[in-house]
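Q: What residues go here?
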């Protein structure tokens, strides 16, 4: 077996052979093509090498040089958007070719009761609100049960419930693993971890260890917003600080809990704050290697309380995805989070640097509370069609980005044979 990169059929020993349309990868490589840096030189369009402003960046990518903060600022602001997007797409194609990844997952938001009141959040409710809810263990399992045989991941984030200590989540995760042992548990953002540690009188490491031992597999990475405390003090005062977000993820990585990471943009942040956010994530990834996927998503204004938000245009969303792919050279995957940006913009993003389109979802409340209208009814076939219509190859993955299978539509059901006149039907 090779030490890294994709392990395809011809690379495996006889006892490790897999189907020709399936492969496995190490967690560190996460499905990235071996030698992708060499592929990048071939992927960059010739027209960009002599670009008056972006030519130096093209040369740096050719030479496997890491892009700088100034490069990031230029990419965030250069007026030649098509060229910026082309660079992002070249970087993605070097890693994955035409492949785009998705999984079979279900979102369950366990409670909207929250002790905080972030100005950008349309999901949060106080305990006395008429539409406040908190799923008990049985209700949670009842929501999961109809989907369990069709999904391999449950994604759970929610409010900071004032009464739920770590004991509640230990019971929840153990119950999921007992009832549905094949389901990966991706749950709890950094601020939820901090809240549980505080009300349970534990350290962050103790909290994560106990949750891991109860069945927590992955942290989803939400809540990063913008890693600038100046911005956070306006849009989410009371949440974890920028340093705390990074420290919680560092601790998770040290405990061998992989995580995603995110960025909420289009509120009040500047282009330089976006770049600094990306570089903070890149620096932590250099140290730990624990981030699997970066998920950038724009602020959705409906039903929220942030009138000063700048709001991101579709072009800006695509630019952020492309720049993220270019600056985050050490984070394997960039997600076009269709629950936030919608299916059509997600399709465009798949040709601008994104290589992942999340999953089947089934149910989701946080983004839809803020105004998302993305369908929650899409199954694997519909997701695969969305990817194909974008000119890409759909690949189903597991939650850890270690097992992959090129998606094939199930065979169409056989047509009933109609009787022929005069024929005796037995």
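A:
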């Amino acid at each position: 077996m090779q030490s890294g990169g994709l392990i395809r059929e011809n690379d495996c020993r006889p006892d490790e052979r897999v189907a020709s349309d399936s492969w496995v990868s190490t967690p560190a490589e996460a499905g990235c093509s071996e030698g992708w840096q060499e592929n990048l030189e071939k992927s960059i369009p010739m027209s960009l090498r002599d670009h008056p402003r972006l030519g130096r960046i093209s040369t740096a990518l050719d030479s496997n040089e890491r892009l700088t903060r100034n490069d990031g600022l230029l990419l965030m602001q250069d007026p030649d958007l098509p060229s910026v997007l082309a660079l992002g797409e070249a970087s993605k194609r070097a890693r994955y070719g035409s492949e785009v990844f998705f999984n079979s997952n279900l979102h369950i938001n366990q409670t909207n009761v929250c002790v905080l009141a972030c100005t950008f959040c349309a999901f949060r409710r106080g305990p006395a609100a008429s539409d406040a809810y908190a799923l008990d263990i049985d209700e949670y399992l009842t929501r999961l049960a109809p989907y369990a045989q069709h999904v391999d991941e449950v994604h759970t984030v929610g409010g900071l419930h004032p009464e739920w200590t770590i004991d509640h989540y230990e019971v929840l995760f153990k119950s999921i693993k007992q009832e549905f042992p094949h389901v990966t548990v991706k749950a709890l953002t950094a601020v939820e971890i901090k809240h549980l540690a505080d009300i349970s009188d534990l350290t962050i490491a103790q909290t994560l260890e106990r949750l891991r031992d109860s069945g927590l597999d992955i942290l989803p990475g939400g809540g990063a917003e913008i890693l600038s405390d100046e911005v956070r003090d306006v849009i989410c005062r009371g949440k974890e600080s920028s340093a705390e977000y990074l420290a919680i993820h560092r601790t998770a990585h040290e405990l061998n809990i992989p995580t995603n990471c995110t960025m909420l943009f289009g509120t009040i942040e500047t282009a330089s704050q976006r770049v600094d956010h990306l570089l903070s994530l890149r620096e932590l990834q250099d140290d730990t290697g624990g981030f699997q996927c970066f998920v950038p998503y724009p602020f959705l204004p409906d039903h929220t309380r942030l009138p000063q938000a700048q709001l991101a245009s579709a072009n800006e969303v695509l630019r952020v995805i492309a720049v993220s792919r270019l600056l985050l050279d050490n984070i394997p995957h960039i997600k076009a989070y269709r629950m936030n940006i919608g299916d059509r913009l997600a399709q465009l993003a798949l040709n601008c640097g994104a290589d992942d389109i999340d999953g089947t979802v089934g149910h989701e409340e946080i983004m839809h509370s803020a105004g998302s209208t993305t369908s929650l009814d899409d199954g694997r076939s519909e997701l695969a069609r969305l990817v194909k219509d974008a000119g890409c190859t759909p690949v189903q993955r597991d939650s850890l980005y270690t097992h992959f299978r090129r998606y094939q539509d199930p065979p169409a059901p056989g047509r009933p044979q109609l009787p022929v006149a005069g024929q005796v039907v037995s």
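A: Context that may help when evaluating the design: The domain at 99-399 is CATH 3.20.20.70 (TIM Barrel). The longest strand covers residues 291-298.
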